[in-house]
UniProtKB/TrEMBL annotation:
The lineage of its organism: Bacteria, Bacillati, Actinomycetota, Actinomycetes, Bifidobacteriales. It is an enzyme of class 3 (hydrolase). Keywords: Hydrolase. Residues 526-614 form the Alpha-L-rhamnosidase concanavalin-like domain. This is alpha-L-rhamnosidase. Residues 1-22 are annotated as: Disordered. Residues 8-18 have a biased composition (Polar residues). GO terms for biological process: carbohydrate metabolic process. It catalyses: Hydrolysis of terminal non-reducing alpha-L-rhamnose residues in alpha-L-rhamnosides. The keyword Hydrolase applies. Residues 633-951 form the Alpha-L-rhamnosidase six-hairpin glycosidase domain.
Amino acid sequence: MNVAIRPTSGTPTFQAASNDEGDGLYRPHELLTALRDEPIGIAQTRPRLWWQVPVVPGVGGDQLSYQIQLSRSPEGFADGAPIQSTPEIRSSQSTAVPWPFERLTSRQIAFWRVRVRIGRPGGDSVLTGWSEPAKVVVGPLGPRDWDGATGIWTEGGAYVRPADPGPALCMNGTFSARFKVTGKSAGVFFRISVDCQDGYLWRFYADERKLAKVHMRNGHENPIATVDLPDGIDLHDYVDLSINVDGNHAGTFINDIPVDSDDDIAFDGPSYGFKTVAGESLAVKNATIVPLNETEPVFQASYDDDSVVPPYAHVADGAMAIDENAFGLLGDVLPGDYWALLRHDFDLPDGQITGAYLYATGRSPFGARQHVYRVWVNDAYAGQGPTRDIGRRAYETHDVTPLLRAGATNTIAFQAWTQTGGRVQALLDVHYADGHVETIVTGPEWQGRPGLDWLPWSGDMNVKVNYFVAPREDIDARHEPLGWKAPHYAGVDFHPVALRGVIDNLHADDSAGIGRIEYHPTAITKLGPGRWLFDAGVERVYSVRADLVVPRSLSGTELTLRMGEELNENGSARYELRSGIRYEDTWTLREGAQTLEHWGYRCFRYLEIDTVEDLDLSDAITFLNDVVPEPAQVGSFESSDDVLDEVWRLCANSMIENRNDLYMDTPTRERMPYEGDLLTRGRGEVVYSHSYDLLRKTCRYIVRIPGKFTEYKFMPIQMAYEEYLETGDADALAEDWALYEREQGLRWLNKDGLIEKDRKTPLNDDIIDWPQPKEIDGFEFTRVNTVVNAWQYAALDYLSKAAEVSGRHDDARSFRRLAERMRDSMNRQIFDERLGAYHDGRDTDHTATHSTMYSAALGVPEENQMKRIGEWLVSDGRLDWVPVSCNAVAWFLEALYRTGQDQAALEIMRSHSETSWWSMIHRWGATQTMEAWSPDIKPNTTFSHPWGASPIVAIARWLLGVKLVEAGASEILVEPHPADLRHAKGDVITVRGPVSVDIEQVEDRTSLKVTMPGNTSGILRWPLRGAKLADVTVSYPDGGDGSTAKKKGDVLEVPLTAGTTSVIVR
């Protein structure tokens, strides 16, 4: 029974007592607050709560009621501390529980704990002990909460080249350029902010002769309109472009021909520049910016000589060439001003510090697609940030309690790098036991210096791609300001900082912050005199630290660091990665003890160092893994097949090692989240770990920056709904409902309810699979595309379910009707009854694997079609050479299991073919899943691409058979499909705890054990294969006999409750 909960306004306060305890042997555990296991710096003042219910022998694990207590005292629940408490609330709810107290307060510490009553209605019950308390800190909620903190950066001083022009600032005026589009399209910024995140982007399409107008909001592209360009304009040849901006008006001209007039230009950005994405590029002959009512330009550049070009471009054929995936401003600062070292000494009074929280942010994390700062407190590493966000700017919360010293001088030190909008803003709250708080903020008292002498610019680590710009990190330790991160720095090279203005629109990071784990090499090899190879054992996101004591004779010695995912044939590190990234840095040593380490991150396994023969590096190297820490509760798997176990571990590594600021495609080449990656990555995370905050955060991010691929836009609603099933919390679905609805292709529906469109439009491109053409199995593109329609069908189905959950019942019925009509038309018009397969489209007879695979996996076929489809999928050698990518194979496995081809699915997962995970491990040496089956298929492949980790999902959901029936995992179906495995055993994680499945198949006897977590119920299904109920022995957690087991057709159904249920079928 559940009862409504209202916030307990005016709840009486009383003192905590140590004797207020139930059965202390059993306690709720794995508490989550706002989906965070360590809720430090959350944004919710009334966060939802989760806990796991223990299973008590003889009583069970059904929760009858709960009681929650809250302490707003820094002492928590110490004896005598004031606390508030709910009464014992009759409810079985243990997921997404509403906050039962008055709102929490910004920048204050609170603690909550819970105990539950376990038993059976009307029977015996046990009141558990109190859980371990969860500490909650709500971060700053609005501008007033930042207490006067402002953004700061270095003034530059002697380390900035005098010729650096700085951004050309001109809000109203005329931007002119002679340019041509050298790719498919190219973008021009105007009225853009100095971090290129807010303003306007005019994107010119050459072949289509169109102008797509975009309003940039915090990095997100919001389409305004598309304009047809006049006949006679050839953007593949040089044209004269001018954009005249005056107040709310912008007039666009090409070759003096007016092509657009817009009177709704509301954002007052001061800058101009360029932006390209994948497939885009341009060349610029000259560019000029002239303010309104003036004749002298504030910026003028001709690129037919040796003029300086910004870092995002280069000179080629007498023009400034801007390749794909680049952006920046005209007149942008040069790299000398990118580094900032910022520090502040402050005194703290005596007393007991009970908590200290540093709230920090910086601008902008988008150019490098990584953090802006690393921060130290009293020379001890404290964290990095901020993460990327859309529609708002994230700040991080660092718990620095153990790093501070009461009654002494303390120091905060930031090392920061960014291309644009350089600012760091921070606020430190130090809480004392007596209740008072000391606050330190960034402001004029801080000091800074550039870092160009210590960290000389040596170029970008990208050599073949331009998805981001991140520095190679050459270090000259002879110029390090020694001791600058510790109190009482004695140098004279730091000066008052530049005040860059308040960073506004701030919001707490929605996921746990990135932590640091130290690893030491698993193997060290001498490749030759002065040549060292360090093997980290597993590819991860690392920075490298070298701790050395250098004699005077070796001062000035260089270390050349080369990092790679693979080894060359001669045993050296392949530091020019296949993905187009070059990991090579040079570190110059000084005399004495020293520590050198990367500021940014790289993703690699092997480190090669070349140096002088006399330098011993055998104990010098530490790999610093920057990752969101893995939760305590994670999945497991083992079986009678060693290859399958290897494959599962490979996929688990891909989950563990890619917990970055977002679920990225790869940390090497692109560092971006995409819908196609999210679906496999997110589905893998929820079965592997008790972690949901990073998934929700990435869903929120992606739905605000939809990609260009048609099918990808239909995927986020599936992931969002599956996250709701996991957590039981529909808040995110409701908040972003309009965004999920917006991305559907309803505008393309024809009279039969099918999507009918051109393959490519400026904003939508049908993809099928990647890379092309190798991985699309000869797919024939038509206007009615089977794969596009299959994904749209699934999205409509999920939208219908999500609408029902959100109380949008009319929307639910509407989407259900659209889905049913689409499904019916696909089965009537595209399905081939004779073959048992779907054609690639309505106007072709070709049957690529993808058309049938996606349709079957996403629920398009009728039940009576499934067997025939399964037979078609395993025909024509598809099991010997998988004809789809290592990402799309997720849906191949899903389709095989859904059509009864369990053995075929198992054979694919344990295959030794060239298109197999075994090949990734043994042929290519991968320790995470790769972007493609092999470099032969995709030469620029990465070795850190979780989108290839689908076996972790297939094993959990199908082989072990654990599926969620009700939201919040309250009801679970266990229906294993082990095929011919003799043994399979694993833990599948749910928000309520792990579901453990243990299967033994020996000749004519099958043994199954299912252990359910507390506060759950479910059904075990198992094919009897002709056996009778008399041949079945069932042992229940409470000792009952098997009388409740049922036979439905040839399937055994056994009810499951918390604890272990054992079944033997003979």
